[in-house]
What we know:
Chain A is α/β, with parallel strands linked by helices.
Amino acid sequence: MAKIVVVGAGFAGHYAALILQDALKGKGNHEITVISRVPKFTYIPSLVWVGVGQMRAEETQFDLKPVYDKLGINYIHGTVVEVHPDPEDQYVVVNLPDGQTKNVKYDYIIIATGPYLNFPAVEGLGPEKGYTQSICTPPHATEAASKYLELVHRLEKGERAKIIIGTGHGLATCQGAAFEYICNIHNDLVDRGLRDRVELMWLSNEPKLGDFGIDGLETKYRGQIFTSEDMVRYVFEQYGIKWEIRSHVRKVEEGKVYTVNLDGEEKEFEFDFAMLIPPFKAQPIKWIDKDGNDITDKVCNPAGFVKVDANYGKPYEELDGPDWPRKYQNPIYKNVFAAGIAFAPPGPLSKPGKAPDGTPIGPTPPRTGYTAELSGKAAALNIVDMIEGREPSHTASMAETPGLCIASMKNKILDGEAATIAIYPVARNRAAYPEYGRDLDNCAAEVGMAGAWFKLFLHYAFLYKLQAKPGWKLIP
Amino acid sequence: MSKEKRDLMDKMWRVRKNLFVQLFRAIVLGLHFWKLVRKVH
Ligand SMILES: Cc1cc2nc3c(=O)[nH]c(=O)nc-3n(C[C@H](O)[C@H](O)[C@H](O)COP(=O)(O)OP(=O)(O)OC[C@H]3O[C@@H](n4cnc5c(N)ncnc54)[C@H](O)[C@@H]3O)c2cc1C
């Protein structure tokens, strides 16, 4: 009998638990335990709509425990603070909501704890101790909506306003979510007849417009090569959105953002409402060896993300598809896997840069919901391989799997729009596709109402699938 | 952006809310997504 612990119940961890349960059904008395800090699953992509006040946070969530009870998976509501990975006595230390701690033993573990939102990296950033909003969690998105609707109220009385949306640090990721938010805000203001009272600005660390932290994308259409830069520039021109890119946010004060860009120019921008995505680091989990030494530096990268089977340490120029992890297995502790945002990438996908004062400016790589699920699935099936005495055989490298993204721009059935984006593969793989690092015949990007339908469909399809309702396995 | 590219973008933009065009695009893009999903599942 094997004890498998999954830490975190987001896209990676929750999906991994469902896959494990399904793959091990009827194959012995194995025990699957999910430990999660939050007792609900959140379909994070729809937080964009929560942040505009068009959806309630509860509509993006479901309770985890009933799903796990139905499937025979143990559930612990708690926060893992330590992992003790040495053989013989392998366990995690969990802080429970009532203040007690509990040790949970494992034979195999998947770390899928997602990002820690590192607002303290920039003075004045974030909704808790700063002046900017975030849409990264349900409470943040709900607060962003209430602040945005307060501003709408003032606009209705005839005031004018400046809104800034984008990234709040030179090394932030998740530009796609901020892009969706700025487009939804634009269209919401248009529908309310208030757009002409607002100056809307995109502020980001991307080296080029449309980079999205994945070094942009190219598509072929009628003999022309279109780039995501062409597309985003076109959309921003149509929407009347100004942009300021290649920028790091140095600090935020009430109503003012201070930036420095790759040319070393220091700038200030005033705002009445700002939503800036924070930089991510790993959740604070300590790795302790059998003698009580802290070995976090050995198991994780400097940001705390768990090292897996990637080639670490290569400069950006040399990094290629084969350097991206395939099996999500830790090289030191073979029964440790990491999936989703929790695994350490081998480097950035976008070109990194530095301001003349040395400030790093360049997106860190996103690991989207679909990538998170695929890595969680590979980790789960590799554990099944090991339980059954085989070598791990399941792979889901970002350099071999597609990125399927629908960037919402307006959420309406008969008047909506969204950018439908297919990238293959997500991480450029010049070993396989020498010219662009991607198979352009499989890449696509277009704006239209069809995308808005897909986006809404995905919201319901994922919430259905992840509650393991009848036929869930048919939804990929 | 070249004139040819801009013309194509303008065309995409004009039909972005045309119900018939979008129903057709939904089928084309849906099949494309499905093809990519089959590569990994
Ligand atoms: C606003 C927004 C919109 C987005 N839109 C899209 C989109 O349209 N498409 C897309 O593909 N991606 C999108 N993303 C990205 C996507 O949400 C992430 O890639 C995905 O959530 C990553 O999944 P994960 O499982 O790695 O982490 P998470 O989903 O963050 O899950 C982490 C889990 O770990 C738990 N946890 C954390 N620390 C601990 C601990 N110490 N102990 C126990 N449990 C812990 C958390 O409670 C949570 O359950 C969006 C992101 C944002 C913020």
